[in-house]
Write a structure and sequence with these properties.
By secondary structure, this protein is mainly beta. The protein has one domain: Beta Barrel (Porin), CATH 2.40.160. The chain is 4% helix and 53% strand. The protein is built from three helices and 15 strands. Strands 1-2-3-4-5-6-7-8-10-11-12-13-14-15 form a 14-stranded antiparallel beta barrel. Strand 6 and strand 7 form a beta hairpin. This is Type IX secretion system membrane protein PorP/SprF.
Length: 323
Amino acid sequence: MAPLAKAQELPSAQQFAHRVFLNPAFTGLLSDYSVTAGHRAQWTGAQNGFSTQWLSGEYRFQESKTGVGLTLQADRAPAGGYARVQAGAVYAYHTKLRENIDFSAGLQAAYASQKPGFSDLIFEDQLGAGGTVQQPTTEALGKERSSYATFATGFLLFTDQFWVGASAQHINNPTTGVGSGASLPPIFQVQTGYRFYVKNYYAQNSLKEISFVPTLAFTQQQSFKRLDGNLYTIVTPITLGLGYSYLPAGAQTSASNGFSGLFGVMYQGFKVGYAYRAALSEEASALGPTHEISIGFAKADFKKIFKRLGSDKNYNRIACPEF
């Protein structure tokens, strides 16, 4: 019998480009509406690696305190192996607690389908004389495809420069197969950050700025823990980012860490970002680096955000980066 394999889900290196997946409470807090797509090529040194695609759309209702969104995520292993597709709907409610403190809470409901993929496996009963491979195997390979529903929730407290929040993914611990361990454990995360402005002004219905944004996130999924720290430098229209990740040692795993770099540019609502992530430990670095690219469009009326005050103000915009 093969030993049970466990792994922690890897977050995006451009977590704020895909912020709806990070915490559903982010829905509608950066723009009136937006559409973002992303692609990640992971473990590129091992048989073409593992790929992930994201697609999300957000819309904020201007005359109410709500935002909605749609999400789509696909994961695929190389050479016809494991594949998963997940589609979801997101709802968020925003309100003002005090003059300079806002609150947002969100909920995501999603449906996923996954296929393990056995096309590249060779079993003992397939081996013939001289090492030839005979088809097919008589092994019981189990259910080819499984489907499940999964739910996520989260909240955010934020000012015009600071935010702190928490989120939980797979809160229903969905069953993903027929094995004893075939379920997705919940993922709990805490996120925070602060935007330091060197220069900040509104001109021609857009925000011009020079700022630094340190962020910190802690993630736990069962016994696996992860700490991510990032520093973003924003000089309109350019965003640069550096990140460090640390996974502490567990009962059966050694400590590991990695670094990431990010470059993004925005122009008249259109944005393109690229991120590079590499492991610093020798074992993990042999799998190769990770490359991510994102493209999107966002519409925000900065006149309503920065020029109006009090009850006439359209909404307060959260201070997190775009990438």
